[in-house]
Amino acid sequence: MKTIEDLGDLAGQRVLVRSDLNVPIKNEVIGDDGRIRASLPTLIKLAKAGAKVIVTAHLGRPKGTPNPEFTLAPVAKRLGELLQPEGITVRFATDVTGDAAQSAVQDLDEGEVLLLENVRYDPREESKDEAERGALAEELAALADVFVSDGFGVVHRKQASVYDVARKLPHAAGGLVLAEVDVLKKLTEDPARPYVVVLGGAKVSDKLAVIDNLLAKADKLLIGGGMVFTFLKAQGHEVGKSLLEEDQLDVVRGYLKEAGDKIVLPTDIVVAPEFKADSPATVVAADAIPADQLGLDIGPESGKAFAAEVATAKTVFWNGPMGVFEMAAFAGGTKAVAQALTEVDGLSVVGGGDSAAAVRQLGFADDAFGHISTGGGASLEYLEGKELPGLAVLEED
After folding, report:
1. Taking the CB of the first residue and of the last residue of the chain, which one, N or C, has fewer CB atoms within 10 A?
2. What is the pLDDT of residues 322-338, one digit of tens each?
3. What is the pLDDT of residues 177-193, one digit of tens each?
4. Residue of 45, 203, 253, 262 marked catalytic
5. Residue 111: strand, helix, or coil
C-alpha cells in the first residue's frame, strides 16, 4: 500500500481523508472520543505539510436521511479542541457534497481541516448499486486532488467514501490504517508464543469464522461473555435464562471436540434473576446455573484463571467483554481480563468496539495496552481471513 509520503509534496493540495469518527454521542456529549484522538496523527501530518485537509466520516445509522441525532457537529467541535494546541483550525460543512461543502472547500486555507457532514446522510454511501455509489464518489473526488484512507473501522465496507472514491483519485493509506494492519499481521502471520485469544460479547454466531481461523493459530482460546452459554449448553449444562443460540449448538460441540483443552471456559458465573443493574447478583458454578437465573458475567475464580492464562502469553488478542460491564455488579470479569492485558510481557491488543469502550469506562489508560484497535468489525473480518475491500483498493495503482 502507498503511504502519504508516496503522494509527494502536498502543500496547497486538497486532501480528502476518510476517517472513522463514529463515536458515542448522547445529548450532544461525546461519551468516548478514542476514535477522534486516533485520527489526529494523520490529520496533523497532512495539515503541517500545508495540505487543505477535507475529512469525510459517518456517525451511527441515519439510513440515508439527514437527522440531527447523527450530526457530526459535536465531533467537529471536539476535533477543533484537540487540534487547537497544534495551531490547526477546524471548520465544519453542513452537507456532504452540496453547496455548503463546495463553498467551504473553496474557502479552506493551507493547513486547515474541514469536516464534512455525516456521509451516511447520503443514501448512495451504502448503496449496493455500484453506479449510485460511484456518483457520490465522483462528487467527493471533485472536492479533492488526492485521497487518504485512514478510517480503519470501515475498511471492511464497500462504500462510496471508503472504496469507490479511492478508485477515482491518487490514493494512500493513512498512518492509522498502516498501524492497524501492522498489528493484525503480527496476530496472524507469525505471532510470538504463547498466543492467547480472549473472545466475549453477546453471540457466538458473530465469532464463528474467527474461532474457525484462530483455533489453528492460537495456543489458548478463552471464552466469556454472552456467547459462553452456548458453549456450556453444548456441554450439557443448564444455562437458565441466559443468552443462548440453540441453532449453534452442533457447531460449538464440533469446536469443543476439535480443540480439546485449547478452549478454556469459565468455571463460575455471576447470575441474577433479571437484566438490571440493581438485580441481586450471586456467584454459582458454571455447571449449576439455576433455571430462574441468567448469567451476566464470568465469576471471580474464572477471572483469576483467565488472567493467569493471559499472564503466560507473549501475544494476546481480546475482543468482546466478559460480561455486562456497563453495570458495576457484572463488570468484574471484564476488569480482570483488562488488568491482565496491561501486564503482558509482549503484544497486547484490545480489539476495538465494546472492548475498547469497556477498558476506557473501567478507567484504564489507552497506553496501558500495546494497541487498542479502532475497528472491531474490521479486525474480526481480517482475522477471519476475509479480504477487506477498503484495503484491497489501496493496493490498486
Report:
1. C
2. 999 999 999 999 999 99
3. 999 999 999 999 999 99
4. 203
5. coil
Q: Active site includes 203?
A: yes
CA proximity to 205, closest of 153, 242, 251, 157: 251
Rounded (10°) CA dihedral 147, 153, 158, 164: -10
Rounded Cα–Cα distance for residues 54 and 17 (Å): 6
- Give dist(CA 248, CA 315) in Å, integer: 29
User: pLDDT digits over 84-98, tens only?
Assistant: 999 999 999 999 999
Catalytic position from the list 14, 18, 34, 35: 35
Residue 87 known to be catalytic: no
Could you list the residues known to form a binding site, using ranges.
Answer: 20-22, 35, 58-61, 120, 157, 207, 295, 326, 352-355
Residue 297 has pLDDT above 90, yes or no: yes
What values do phi and psi take at 291, rounded to 5? -65, -25
Task: Read off the pTM.
Answer: 0.90
Place of cell 472514491: 165
Q: Does residue 41 register a pLDDT over 90?
A: yes
CB-count exposure of residue 64 (10 Å: 0-12, 13-18, 19+): middle
Active site residue 353: yes
Q: How far apart are CA 164 and CA 119, in angstroms?
A: 13
